[in-house]
Specification:
Helices cover 50% and strands 20% of the residues. It starts with a strand and ends with a helix.
């Protein structure tokens, strides 16, 4: 059974790019709204979430992390900086990557899911 990853991305071009990069390793569900993301997480129990914090707030990351504490959350942003990275980690994210760096997002998701599985074992 393939592992699921949910991508919350407003920009269709970035969503397609991320989904294409993640698909060889995961079953990818692309969502466009917070509500759709939460329904998908509750229904499909994904291995990780990729969430663009350019469009959604860090309070969304906090809320998601509070409700699903074992779920790795990899945040993306067009131009992340160190301050944003620290704030996202404090909110419960496992990493912050440039939205257009599919290889970095994939590496982060793979690392986060491996850490999550080893912690659960």
């Amino acid at each position: 059974m393939p592992q699921n990853v949910v991508v919350l991305e407003k920009d269709p071009r970035v969503a397609r790019s991320l989904a294409g990069g993640l698909r060889p390793h995961f079953s990818v569900h692309v969502t466009r709204t917070r509500e759709e993301l939460r329904e998908n997480v509750a229904r499909n129990h994904p291995e990780a979430v990729v969430l663009n914090i350019e469009y959604w707030r860090l309070t969304d990351v906090e809320s998601l992390h509070r409700d699903f504490p074992a779920l790795p959350i990899v945040c993306t942003h067009r131009i992340p900086d160190e301050e944003m990275w620290m704030a996202a980690l404090s909110a419960g994210a496992s990493d912050v990557c440039p939205a257009d760096d599919v290889a970095k997002v994939l590496t982060s998701v793979l690392r986060s899911t491996a850490l999550s599985r080893s912690a659960a074992a």
